[in-house]
Design brief:
Elements lengths: L3 H12 L4 H8 L3 H8 L7 H10 L5 H13 L16 H17 L3 E6 L6 H12 L6 E6 L12 H11 L9 H12 L4 E8 L2 H4 L10 E6 L4 H7 L2 E4 L5 H12 L1 H6 L1 H10 L4 H13 L5 H8 L4 H4 L10 H9 L4 H10 L7 E2 H8 L3 H13 L4 E4 L2 E3 L2 H14 L2 H26 L25 H26 L4 H8 L1 H7 L2 H18 L2 H17 L3 H17 L3 H17 L3 H18 L2 H17 L3 H18 L2 H17 L3 H17 L3 H17 L3 H18 L3 H11 L26
Parallel strand pairs: 1-4, 1-5, 2-3, 3-4
Antiparallel strand pairs: 6-8, 7-8
Length: 767
């Protein structure tokens, strides 16, 4: 302890009867210096302590006290400098602040393990926070790069790290064995306040000998791997670091290249951040390049980062170790063979989070093995888990994985993987489609490749399960899956959108509908057959019709009809005629629509397509009614309704009531139109068609408004608005604006006339 050496030296010298001058001659130090030592005004060196110990026969007592005093005065400050202009990470810094506050309050040792993907800024965050709290640790700060992932040699040995730490703390003699050295380290720091920072650990085993048990100390560990072992054995608190948020990324760019440049091209800056996957390393490299070239517009770098070789752009020219690709290399090269293959093949999948079942198809492995491999990738942050059995890989890592696949997997292996995945997806979509509308007849698909098990929907709630799966999977995955199939010239490019037909009719995702079919049409035209092309042409035409682009719709449907005639597909021709009838009806050309519907009905009957017959009967019935042929209209409505009911076709029944409501509206019978819309809403609800319900309530609201039944109109409008809002449909905004100006209830405003439409009795079909 400080002061003991001085008093002990003075006591032993006096016991020997030596004056300072006499003693100085013996140990060869000046009397003045020895006087200062004895008064505690100067610290003894180990050499002086050894000389005094020998001269006074102290048997090592003075040397021991000198060492203790030297150790007590050492305050290692080994932290590297913090990153200049550090921004963001407010949440993570707050969690670290809360962790140390809790440890101080409870009097417990603090160990925090910070993990995250390569390039996420784990070291920068840790060093930044360590500098902030270093004042709480008067015993000093120890730092070691454990080189768990390094271009320069093997991971650091705990034995050597402990020797360095003990030397920094003034301990000269250390044992050779790891366990003894670790115990000595814990002993030396036990009565000190020391912060230990262990950067870039390979695993928990490397870290465990370096931990301290004293409540006066704290340990920070960073690793690309989730160090769950430290949580189990040492009670370590884990903090996972994700890529930065969009606004944090912008602040980082501002801090390096200046606010003016970023604010002048803020939209481009956000695109740059997105193309860097909001990864701090990629953002820093990009920002430094822009700072080096102050005349470059941000759009120049954004263009560079939009290319296929952006990983080669993300490198520091002054230090090629600071390259995103090299940083990824370190994590990838530590994977075992099967886990590395899983990672490579995930690079082929260009979509949103992938399910475990889809990943199993991609690799050809069992579901259990696939989950194990994905867990391995999660553990080193090459894959993130976004939900139960859902996995995501960010864009830069996906591009890196795809590059690895191209380099290490043959084309045949990549083709086989793409075939397995697209087959699984196509057959799963087909099964879901059939669960939604089992009455619809579609040609069978080829069986799956070996090792692929598509989803099935066969329970009592099959339709609900199928709809839920399609809602989660199809909207975001169909387009990228179609691109994957087209890249490898697989039929899934057109089968996938084609087998989504019933779901598309229910949900109306216009952009995805058109995009997926545009990909499918190009593929079918390039390497498919005329029947494949005709199917996509027809479906694309329907998308354009329902979007109000009648000329485009007619072009696609007419081409589909030409192709169907070329191959002699009469059933397909009937559906094309029906579609042309819909286009004519939307254009208010009822005679032409009637002609198309009549020809379609005749062909459906000749080919035995009951579903098509039911649809054509209802279409023709509406046209008959609009043309004044009420007897024929009523008969066809009844016949078509009976067919839909017999098939259990809720969607078809709903369309029947919609068409009948439209007829009544055109004839001015709004009350009967509302009766039919009520039935339509029931059918859409039974079939789980939220979009159909929304559209029906929207029309109900408009008709009720015409009848000045404002309270009911507002209720219907609110129902439609809520459904559209849940579906993310832009119509929600229109309905919200409508609600803002509609009367709250009661009578219509004085400026509005009373309804002039007659109020007839009940629609006979509603009885």
């Amino acid at each position: 302890m400080p002061g003991q050496f001085s008093s002990t030296l003075r006591r032993l010298r006096s016991q020997r009867g030596l004056s300072l001058r006499q003693f100085a001659q013996i140990v060869h130090y000046s009397p003045g210096w020895l006087s200062r030592i004895e008064r505690g005004q100067a610290a003894p060196t180990l050499a002086l302590a050894r000389s005094c110990d020998d001269a006074l026969s102290a048997e090592g007592e003075l040397l021991k006290l000198a060492r203790l005093e030297a150790q007590s005065q050492l305050r290692p400050a080994q932290l590297p400098s913090a990153v200049a202009g550090f921004v963001g990470r407010t949440h993570a810094l707050g969690e670290l602040d809360a962790a140390i506050a809790k440890a101080e309050h409870t009097g417990t040792a603090l160990t925090v393990a910070i993990d995250g993907p390569p390039g996420a800024g784990k070291s920068a965050l840790t060093i930044q926070w360590a500098h902030r709290v270093a004042g709480r640790f008067p015993g000093g700060v120890l730092f070691a790069d454990l080189q768990g992932h390094s271009h320069h040699g093997r991971p650091a040995e705990p034995l050597q790290v402990l020797e360095d730490f003990l030397a920094a703390l003034g301990t000269e003699s250390v044992p050779d064995e790891l366990e003894a050295r670790s115990a000595l380290f814990r002993t030396v720091v036990s009565d000190r306040h020391v912060l230990v920072v262990l950067d870039n650990a390979i695993d928990s085993q490397q870290v465990k000998p370096l931990l301290v048990g004293s409540a006066s100390c704290a340990v920070l560990v960073t690793s690309r791997r989730r160090l769950t072992g430290l949580g189990i054995t040492a009670g370590a608190r884990r903090l996972s670091l994700a890529p930065m948020g969009p606004q944090e990324s912008i602040e980082l760019l501002r801090g390096v290249i200046g606010e003016k440049r970023v604010d002048a091209e803020e939209d481009v800056a956000r695109a740059v951040a997105l193309r860097c996957a909001h990864l701090p390393l990629a953002l820093r490299i990009t920002a430094e390049r822009l700072a080096t070239h102050p005349r470059w517009p941000l759009s120049h770098v954004a263009d560079e980062l939009s290319g296929k070789d952006r990983l080669d752009v993300l490198v520091d020219r002054d230090n090629d170790d600071l390259a995103v690709r090299k940083v990824f290399d370190l994590s990838y090269e530590a994977l075992d063979g099967e886990t590395a293959r899983m990672f490579r093949l995930l690079g082929l999948y260009p979509g949103p989070p992938i399910s475990a079942a889809a990943a199993a198809a991609l690799t050809g492995h069992s579901l259990a093995l696939t989950r194990d491999l994905l867990d391995g990738l999660i553990g080193v942050h090459l894959v993130e888990e976004t939900g139960l059995d859902r996995y995501w890989i960010h864009d830069l890592l996906r591009e890196y994985a795809a590059d690895r696949a191209a380099a290490e997997e043959s084309y045949a292996e990549r083709l086989a993987a793409a075939r397995r995945l697209t087959s699984w997806y196509t057959l799963s979509v087909d099964a879901a489609n059939m669960a939604l509308t089992p009455q619809r007849e579609v040609p069978p698909l080829d069986p799956p490749p070996a090792g692929v098990t598509p989803l099935t929907f066969t329970s009592d709630t099959a339709a609900e399960e199928a709809r839920a799966w399609l809602d989660e999977e199809a909207k975001d995955s169909a387009v990228p899956m179609g691109r994957l199939a087209a890249r490898y010239r697989l039929p899934g490019a057109w089968h996938i959108p084609g087998r989504l037909w019933n779901w598309l009719l229910m949900r109306k995702p216009w952009s995805m509908w058109i995009s997926s079919h545009t990909i499918g049409l190009e593929a079918a035209t390039t390497y498919g057959g005329p029947g494949d092309q005709a199917c996509v042409e027809l479906n694309l035409g329907e998308a354009y019709r329902q979007s109000g682009y009648y000329e485009r719709a007619e072009q696609h449907v007419t081409q589909a009809l030409t192709l169907r005639r070329r191959i002699g597909d009469r059933q397909g021709q009937a559906w094309c005629l029906e579609a042309l009838g819909f286009i004519a009806a939307d254009r208010k050309d009822t005679p032409l629509a009637h002609s198309y519907f009549s020809r379609a009905l005749e062909t459906f009957r000749q080919t035995g397509d009951t579903h098509g017959e039911a649809v054509a009967l209802c279409s023709l019935a509406e046209a008959d009614g609009l043309l004044g042929n009420m007897t024929a209209s009523q008969a066809r409505y009844k016949e078509g309704f009976a067919l839909h009911r017999r098939m259990g076709d809720h969607f078809g029944e709903a369309m029947f009531w919609d068409r009948r409501a439209h007829l009544h509206e055109q004839q001015g019978d709004l009350v009967q139109a509302l009766q039919c819309l009520d039935r339509s809403a029931e059918c859409h609800s039974q079939g789980g068609n939220d979009w159909g319900q929304a559209a029906t309530h929207d029309l109900r609201a408009q008709l009720l408004g015409k009848l000045f039944r404002w309270e009911e109109a507002r209720q219907a409008c609110e129902q439609a608005w809520k459904l559209y809002d849940q579906l993310g449909d832009p119509r929600a905004t229109r309905l919200r604006d409508r609600l803002a100006v509609w009367p709250q209830g009661g009578e219509a405003p004085d400026s509005q006339a009373r309804p002039v439409h007659p109020l007839p009795g009940q629609d006979p079909m509603c009885t």
